[in-house]
Fold each of these.
Amino acid sequence: MEKRLIRYLKELESISRRAEKGEFTPEELSYEREKALTQISFFQHERLIHLIVTVTFAVLTLMSVLGTILSGQLSLSLLVLVLLILLVPYVRHYYILENGVQRLYTFYDKLL
């Protein structure tokens, strides 16, 4: 998904530059806006799903940390470690999706 987002951002950047130069007819510009809205909705959906997963992993990690502290069982620290290892890529991916969608909004506004 990250590669697709980056590829589409580059495409929109090119379209935006061409639109600023007036290289599109009104119909073509309308088509590009509709296409951008469709892609934005796909990436927003992906972002929402990853937000839910990331928050779930964060809550599970916090609960495991609290469980480890309160119970004193070292076996729970292994669970904390596994959850932290999984949480880092989820946060990174969500960060990329969030910033990418914000950039998509900017390009869409330029097409207006």
Amino acid sequence: MGRESKYVAEPFRIKMVETISVLSREERERKIAEAHFNPFYLRAEDVYIDLMTDSGTNAMSAAQWSALIQGDEAYAGARSFFKFEAAGKDIFGYDFIMPVHQGRAAEKVLFSLLLSKGQYAVSNMFFDTTRAHVELAGARAIDCVTPEAKDPQIRAPFKGNMDVACLEALIAKLGARQIGMVNMTITNNSAGGQPVSLDNIRSVAGVCKKHGIHLNIDAARFAENAYFVKQREPACQDMTIKQIIREMFSFADTFTMSAKKDAIVNIGGIVGINDGSSDLVIKSKANCISYEGFTTYGGLAGRDLEAIAVGLYEGIDEEFLSYRIGQMEYLAACFDEEEVVYQAPVGGHGVFVDAAAMFPQIPYDEFPGMVLGTELYKEAGIRATEIGSYMLGNDPDTGKQLKSEFEFLRLAIPRRVYTRSHLDVVVEAMLSVKKRAPQFKRGMRITWEPPILRHFQAHLSAIEK
């Protein structure tokens, strides 16, 4: 099979490698069955190409590894913290920057201060762990994504946008006092890693300011979002990536961030508060001390803070971002050639394959994304994550299975880890599964599940009849 698409060459040289191995087809079939058909139970050593997540799976640079050695492990006021803080303030323009150990820790620290029982949180689209922290605070999560996002084959430049009319209608229906927070996820992970325009952020901020509603940015992939803004929003084409980031974040009151994505590290997160004099700073510090550790380390070692301080700048380098997004565009172009349907145009951190289009005969409550993920592992030892009804879970009030807007299998690409040859293996394996897709009559059922965030731990089995 020929490859017509162009691959953007890596803007780095490889100095160190890690050996990986390929199990036989028979071994892979046995391993996934022993894992209850849940890829989270697979041992990493039994996976050939791991596309489960781009979170914390990145390859750090020589500069970051060098910075690790300089880590100051003092409990309070460590030198490493001030490097971390200075980088955060410089890039985001916020008065208050505090470390936590990862993104969901930032949500735990902040969301309980913004939400209470009976309230609602509205987002362009909540990721599962963010939705869980809304519910743990006693509130309910509502998605308000732009309608274009709901059709994977519509090619629109900013399919991660908030539907502003939907947001205003919700405020009118529920009342501004009942909405504890609006959350803008950039890029919009659950919608396929799709970007949010600067104009949309500005519009949402205007609605929030008008009604006195707190605006938070889920900033896990802020640099990728800024790159898309520069490429696709005419008013921003002459701005630097850093200038776009400053502008985006200027409209929000706070941000929560997993540094395990665009800061290109293996652990870490950030809580940012725009107004350093607000009471929210004092309350966030108290929660951090209770849940994470003192405010100058937030559950991290000094060496982790050093790596983040370096990685924040490496992650906003435009040449790196061009290569980073180029990997997604290459994989998507290969799928275009073979008519594999995905959320188009391709997003920032992965390709979200439309499992419902590949298995139209399998209903949402038999989880076509899990079927595709299982078959991809059997085919070539590739591990990926379902983003669909299985991950969405059950209604917290009725206990009934929810129907997702999408039935995706996310192929998330770790930063600076895999080459074109690895991506070609993914394409070949996907095509092999696609050819066999009509043979599948039924999907999968859950045989056991925990009460919250089930996709990490649930057990599944194939439906035979």
Amino acid sequence: MIGTRALLLASTLALASCSLAPKTVLPSPPVPQSWPVGDAYLLQSEAALPILSYQSVFTDPRLQSLAEQALTNNRDLRVAYANVAAARAQARVTRAGQFPAIGISGGAGYSDGNGNGNGNGTSGGGGGGDFSLRGGITAFELDLFGKLANATEADRNRALATEAASRTVRLALIANLADAWAIYGADRDLLAIAQDTAANARENVRLTRARLDGGVAPRTDLRQAEQILATAEDAIAAQTSALAQDENLIRLLVGGDVDRALLPNGLADVTPAIASLPAGVNSQILLRRPDVIEAEYGLRAANADIGVARAQLFPSISLTGLLGFASNALSSLFDSGSFSWSAGGDVTAPIFDAGGRRAGVAVSEAQRDAALAGYEGAIQTAFREVADALAVQGTIAERVRAAAANTAAAADTATLTDARYKGGVDSFLASLDAQRSLYSARRSEIATQLLLVQTRIALFRALGGDSGAGATTP
């Protein structure tokens, strides 16, 4: 059939169209080939880092259980997945424009011998019915210069960029949950410190009041002891609120209620549950970070947009076709003599638009240049984040050791000073100063231990961590 041949020819021309988009060339990563070295970094090896899963880094079953709940219920992740589905669907919508749209229509009519229609299907004189069935191509543009193909490629890459963005949300969710879990453990320790300090302060108040009643101690000693007690009680209230807020955050990240049995009792539970990551990793691993992948697909989409803009400079050719059957008798509708066909085409070409189309090409090229700079900037930012985390990781062990030694010395000083006060050698003020120093040292040690854990989490996040499965083609 002639109509069928015309349809096949049009489809072949569309699929064989040329592309005016420039080839995407990714630049070399604008960062060194290895991480910084020196006393702060403690470079261990240049072995390649395997792909990380959150289960291999966050080893506590309680934290893993919370992570699984979060990946199922977190609303931000659901929004990200919905955006991926929408972007994939949009790519399919754009791709559909590369193919002919085929429609069908039919009609029926009846008239009496005088040319008047009769609604009841009968007539007094001679009359007859007209029936038709038509099908054909509607609004099909020959993609000679790759405009539609490049538009499809651009939307496809935007869909892939959206999927990479969803994996960034996943990575941030797991890292934020681990961080909140660790902070909860630290706040449990800080609450215990405040409770211990308050208990000691109450005992000091009792003893000092007894010494005041016996005429041994002045009233100022009692007031100073009461100040220490009030400070500790304020800390208890503050840490109780902090723990409640920590639970609220974990509940938000998980997307539902949280079993308290899954929460840590202190940093002693947290520290061994979050594994340390090696420092000696080639910086090429940054190309696996989801934000870098997103920037790469954004660059590819911008490159395809140039092809779309360039194709706008050339004529646009549209085809229409029609084939069908027409008869004045239903019984002969599909007879060979009832078949008819027609075909046509339209050509539109720009003559003068005051440079608008060429300006559109310039806009696309500028957007491509911006996307290229954004891609390079994403890699450089990733490198800086990893290097910063490695700098802390290289020295945090010494800081933890020093904090523990400071706490031990402060505890010994407090014990000796209290004994000297009770023996009448030192003043009560010296004893109070020693207690304050011990309280500060214990809190500082907790902060340093928390920093150690948070550095491991930050490195997991900076290296891309477990950001989900690789992107798939929409």
